[in-house]
Write a structure and sequence with these properties.
alpha+beta; Serine Threonine Protein Phosphatase 5, Tetratricopeptide repeat; six-stranded mixed sheet; globular; TPR_rpt; PH_domain
């Protein structure tokens, strides 16, 4: 019996045997055979034929016609709820196709209906390791898996544990080919869907979730789930592998539909142009921007030839082409194409048509990406006017336009104006779509971004969490949009200094995007960047660099080097190497980022300022303060032109310039910039924001260093004491992280009379001591297995590490600070 079991893992049945069984089914059930499922065929034909001998159907074939059984060459994966005739016809079509190849060999199918003894539960007594060893090795020996998929819009195999495990075993075996096939009727339906609604095709891939799969036999399900969890790297690995395979299959089918029409000589028709447009949209959805552009170009050429330049379909082709240039960062080319489309739409549809409004929105998006905010708002306002007239003021499209306007205000730092726009969008979405709708969740996400920008991180998390819950309920946990909410929460937690928890959310976003979009999608690269940046924050530079390099490679592959997003990745790599103290590498990446932005966006683009700021910080750490000031001045010039003088980002740069002058001992100049920064922070963020309080401290220190007499009350007390250094309950050398993602540097730290934590360049340095009032400290705790001491204040977390000259362990410092906090009567938390 062991030999029989082994044969059933390796043997298969011939094409003639499949034909004979199908003919037998028609004879036995002439009226119902076309509607019978595999389960029906098993119960009504296979079991009655094999019950007496209690054997598998293949055993009967082996006795009756030995030539019908041979070494399996194809493993068939299918669901038993399918119509058996459809499944068998797919096998015959596949075999016929294989026979036309030059190196064709006889095909023998491992088909479970025939190969397993249907009179007994053949898997009931199999040990757990059989699933992840013998079964997997059997598929590898066969060398090919044929997945019969239907219905295409909600494939049953993607919900069956057995099928998902079979697919994964095929994908994960190097050298094993996996073919996905549909019955002819389903293939035609798929091609029709690609022509009419490409989103329906791409959304199919999101529904693969192995952990939700079912099996007729609960025992089988348990065994398969255990195998997935223990061997295959978990459900995430299975989901990602299956979706990658389906993604490739979907793209192949989309392109094959075009090739089919070309082969039939139908490539000069409007229908062909429409198909090219939809295939282009599918390719763009999967990040294949260059291929998408080729199909949009084909569509445009045919529309111009058959319909003329002045036709709405031609305008749509220009819009689609514009999107691909948008994707690649060529915003000027995109704008030219959108302008052509707008002119055509206005002439053919009228100025007050939704189509004209849509192209206005695209123009607004392009100008927004260029940092031309006034033009962006002008086009969004035109879009809003047309939409309100054509569709009504309470239409979801109007809500989207309000959100777009809010995005511009957010980018300009006009947070209150942004919130007003988002609240208008929220009002419309709640009325038109309801609370539990992705559109409403998008607005929560936008509002969360504003509160994040304002430094109100808890309120930001509240809105991100609302968005996340709605996304999970309406779209599912494993959906690209859900990943956006996880990213937002991660950003807020990171800014709060809760880096370990932030990493968990970034990891969730990364896992979702890997599964749903694949490992080479730009959004996946964004998650790699977030994950890498977070690890850089906690000093885990190896992990950080690995992920940032991965993001860089994806962007180079999908977007090319001359793209703003690629420049952003170079910026992140530069910051990580900066943190590590590898200044030459950091300089190289900053310069590459600057060159790309200058070429693609121009020297005056708002994003150029971030690279100049990074370079300024780098020069500062290298002790080149004059060069640092030049970079910060360049950043300030750009920010004043694009964001205005009274903007939080401009204020940060003003503060950096002040700090450089302070480092040079030029306190008079430092004070001017600190005052400007403080005024801007107060006006935009309010007096209690962490940035505002930090600027106040910088200004206070500058005034002290300048010999001014307008010190605060705290300084007057110190003056009356003759600037005598108080008794120190704890003192010594530590390493402290600089602000704004800075590297660690040595400093002398001491606890002052249980009221302040003080740090400076050395024990004799008194002029530029920095003092953290313990009354503002929320907590002091060790992190990263005791490697970091984190002192959390309102709005900022100070990070210290052991220094080679430290005379006390971080645990001693932590205990001392905690003791001081517990005994401090002014402690607020």
């Amino acid at each position: 019996m062991a030999d029989d079991n082994e044969q059933r893992l390796t043997d298969g049945v011939s094409v003639d045997a499949i034909k004979a069984f199908l003919a037998d089914l028609k004879r036995q059930f002439p009226d119902t055979h076309n509607e019978m499922t595999t389960a029906d065929a098993c119960k009504q034909l296979v079991v009655p034929r094999t019950h007496g001998a209690s054997c598998a159907y293949v055993d009967l074939l082996r006795k009756q016609s030995p030539e019908s059984v041979g070494k399996a060459t194809v493993f068939v994966s299918h669901a038993w709820r399918y119509k058996i005739a459809d499944v068998l016809n797919v096998l015959l079509e596949f075999a016929e196709e294989q026979a036309t190849k030059d190196d064709s060999k006889p095909v023998f199918f491992w088909f479970d209906l025939f190969m397993n003894n249907q009179n007994a539960n053949v898997t009931a007594n199999l040990p757990q390791e059989w699933w992840s060893t013998t079964f997997k090795e059997s598929i590898a020996n066969i060398g090919r898996v044929l997945l019969v998929l239907m219905p295409w819009q909600d494939p049953v195999p993607l919900t069956r544990a057995w099928c998902l495990w079979e697919i994964f075993c095929g994908i994960s075996n190097e050298g094993t080919e996996v073919d996905i096939r549909l019955p002819n009727s389903e293939q035609q339906a798929l091609e029709g869907a690609i022509c009419e609604n490409y989103k329906a095709v791409t959304d199919t891939l999101v529904r693969v979730q192995a952990e939700r799969a079912e099996a007729f036999n609960p025992h089988d399900k348990d065994m398969i789930f255990n195998a997935i969890e223990s061997w295959a790297g978990g459900f995430g690995a299975v989901n990602q592998a299956v979706k990658d395979q389906l993604r490739a299959w979907c793209l192949d089918n989309a392109e094959a539909a075009v090739e089919g029409m070309q082969a039939r000589g139908e490539d000069d028709t409007e229908v062909f142009a429409a198909l090219c447009s939809q295939v282009g949209l599918v390719l763009r959805e999967f990040g294949e921007h260059n291929k998408a552009r080729e199909y949009f170009e084909k569509a445009k050429a045919i529309y111009v030839e058959t319909l003329g330049e002045k036709h709405p379909s031609t305008a749509d082709a220009y819009i689609n082409l514009g999107l691909t240039y948008d994707d690649k960062g060529d915003f000027d080319q995109a704008i030219d194409l959108y302008q052509k489309a707008k002119q055509i739409q206005a002439e053919t549809l009228g100025n007050n048509h939704p189509g004209t409004a849509a192209v206005c929105s695209s123009l607004g998006n392009a100008y927004y990406a260029k940092g031309k905010y006034d033009k962006a708002i002008a086009y969004y306002q035109e879009d809003l006017a047309i939409t309100s007239e054509a569709l009504g003021e309470k239409h979801p499209s109007a809500a989207q336009t309000y959100s777009n306007i809010g995005n511009v205000y957010y980018a300009q730092g006009e947070y209150d104006s942004a919130i007003k726009q988002y609240e208008k969008a929220m009002e419309i979405n709640l009325e038109a779509l309801g609370e539990k709708h992705p559109g409403t969740a998008n607005t929560h996400n936008n509002i969360g971004n504003v509160y994040f920008g304002k430094g109100e991180y808890d309120r930001a998390i509240e809105h991100f969490e609302k968005a996340r819950k709605v996304y999970v309920e309406t779209l599912g946990e494993k959906h690209p949009t859900t990943a956006i909410a996880y990213k937002g929460i991660g950003n807020a937690l990171s800014s709060k200094g809760e880096h370990d928890t932030a990493i968990e959310y970034y990891a969730a976003a990364k896992a979702i995007r890997l599964e749903t979009l694949g490992p080479t999608h730009p959004d996946t690269a964004e998650s790699f960047s977030d994950f890498g940046n977070a690890h850089s924050e906690i000093g885990e530079y190896g992990v950080a660099i690995d992920h940032l390099e991965a993001a860089k490679e994806i962007h180079l592959q999908t977007l090319g080097e001359e793209h703003p997003t690629t420049a952003y990745t170079f910026n992140n790599l530069a910051a990580a190497y900066d943190d590590m103290g590898e200044y030459s590498k950091a300089m190289k990446y900053y310069e590459r980022a600057r060159a790309i932005k200058a070429a693609v966006l121009g020297e005056k683009h708002s994003s150029m300022a971030s690279t100049c700021t990074g370079l300024g910080n780098l020069y500062s750490k290298m002790g080149k303060h004059a060069e640092a000031i030049q970079c910060f001045e360049k950043a300030k010039e750009i920010q004043v032109a694009t964001l205005g003088e009274v903007h939080p980002t401009t204020a940060l740069t003003l503060e950096s310039i002040g700090a450089e002058f302070a480092e040079q001992g030029r306190m008079d100049r430092a004070r001017v910039f600190f005052e400007q920064a403080l005024d801007a922070f107060t006006a935009t963020l309010g007096p209690d924001h962490p940035h505002t309080r930090a600027a106040e401290e910088e200004l206070r220190q500058a005034r002290r260093g300048n010999g001014a007499h307008d010190w605060g009350e705290e300084d007057e007390v110190r003056q009356h004491r003759g600037l005598q250094q108080p008794a120190q309950s704890m003192a010594g050398w530590l390493q402290k992280r600089r602000r704004w993602r800075g590297s660690f540097h040595a400093c002398w730290v001491f606890l002052e009379a249980g009221t302040h934590l003080v740090y400076s360049k050395g024990p004799e340095e008194t002029a530029r001591q920095r003092r953290i009032p313990l009354s503002t400290v929320r907590s002091a705790e060790l992190a990263r297995d005791g490697k970091d001491l984190r002192v959390a204040c309102r709005g900022r977390t100070f990070v210290f590490r052991q220094h080679e000259c430290s005379n006390a362990a971080l645990t001693d410092w932590c205990s001392a600070i905690q003791a001081a906090l517990s005994s401090n009567p002014n402690q607020t938390v």
